[in-house]
Amino acid sequence: MTTLQGREILLGVGGGISAYKSCELLRRLQDSGFLVRVVPTRSSLNFVGAATWEALSGREVATDLWNRVHEVPHISLAKSSDAIVIAPATADLIARLASGRADDLLTNVVLASTAPIILVPAMHTEMWLNQATQANVQLLRSRGYLVIEPEVGRMTGEDSGIGRYPEISSILAQIKAHLNHNDDYAGRHVLVSAGGTREKIDPVRYIGNLSSGKQGYAIALQAAKRGAEVTLVSANVSLPDIEGVSIVKVESAAQMLQALEARFDSADLLVMSAAVADASPSTESDHKIDKSQLTSITLSPNPDIVATLGDRKKPGQVIIAFAAQGQTDDASQLQKAKEKMASKNADLLYFNDVINTEIFGSEETEGVILMNSAEELRFPRATKMTLAAKLLDLALNKLG
């Protein structure tokens, strides 16, 4: 599994009655593209059990400093977390954090972490307004903690006043602003193809290409980070799976077309970054062909996947195509890419030079982004993750 920097949230849960509200916070964090791991305090388990947190997060919940000691959980959790959100943060938990105590798993993680820390206090009015609590809050703020102000409202029983767990929308807005997090693809389905297809000649030979799949995986990572539901159709890559992304493994062009067709109608955006073989052997031998007989191979054209799906495109859907050709500064090559974009009914096309630059297998890329027959944008050499973010920005404009 691999995750993307900026996505990993550790949700600490303090032992207050409002712990149940953090179930909804967890869900909304997930909807915004975050991966959430829950670390509840022992006292909080009286309100919401570990089984609930595991079911909602889809991940193992750590509750004790002394479990799986060989993994040094407080250090591994601290290092893997891009931010720590503690909700609810009780008066006791705030006091322990302010004094630098490390007497359970959560406080150990906080003390070992260099990530941003966000506290969501929730407690009775008298406890919140107590001078000790206010002094602890001021001390934590001076250390760089974001302490979200509690709201005014009804508590447990008949009590009412300041100290109420804030509305989830308010908490989310402040978390995103503090972390500079963008979830502009929330609620959208992004379908991505990656890698290179293989067309079998016999059980041990195939026709293929050198595509590593890195560009498609970068697009899937960026889309997931921005809150999209992402399906990645992956052909013959050696990259780790992406947590939170649905991955469909295929080998041939026919299998890729089948997988994409089954999911295209529900997609808002298709990014066709896979390198699909143009042709496949007309016949596939069920046994290894002797090399003395392997003198020629009769080929049959593969279906044009982008054109096939482009013909089915509905209003509101966007397609990004890729064209791997030579010399992006060659006017005839650029014109050919524009014609390809039009014939495939694509909304954007990334045209890159695979002859004069090391693109396949590289961490970087350069090329030209075509937005229509007349508008083009030169993309100077940069990381494939940078290109992924740029393409998603441009596609979002077309999605509206």
Summarize the structure.
The chain is α/β, with parallel strands linked by helices. It has helices at 21-31, 50-57, 73-80, 91-98, 105-112, 125-129, 131-142, 168-179, 214-225, 253-264, 305-312, 331-343, 384-399, and strands at residues 8-13, 35-40, 83-89, 117-121, 146-147, 151-154, 160-164, 189-195, 199-202, 205-207, 229-235, 246-250, 269-272, 279-281, 299-301, 318-325, 348-353, 364-370, 376-383.
Structure, explained:
- The protein has 400 residues and is an alpha/beta fold.
- The chain has two domains: 8-179, Flavin prenyltransferase-like (Rossmann fold); 189-399, CoaB-like (Rossmann fold, 3-Layer(aba) Sandwich).
- The protein contains 13 helices and 19 strands.
- It has helices at 21-31, 50-57, 73-80, 91-98, 105-112, 125-129, 131-142, 168-179, 214-225, 253-264, 305-312, 331-343, 384-399; strands spanning 8-13, 35-40, 83-89, 117-121, 146-147, 151-154, 160-164, 189-195, 199-202, 205-207, 229-235, 246-250, 269-272, 279-281, 299-301, 318-325, 348-353, 364-370, 376-383.
- The strands form five sheets. It has an eight-stranded mixed sheet with strand order 12-11-8-13-16-17-18-19, with helices on both faces. The chain has a five-stranded parallel sheet with strand order 2-1-3-4-5, sandwiched between helices. A two-stranded antiparallel sheet has the order 6-7.
- The longest helix is centred in the C-terminal third of the chain and has 16 residues, at 384-399.
- The protein starts with 7 loop residues before the first strand and ends with a helix.
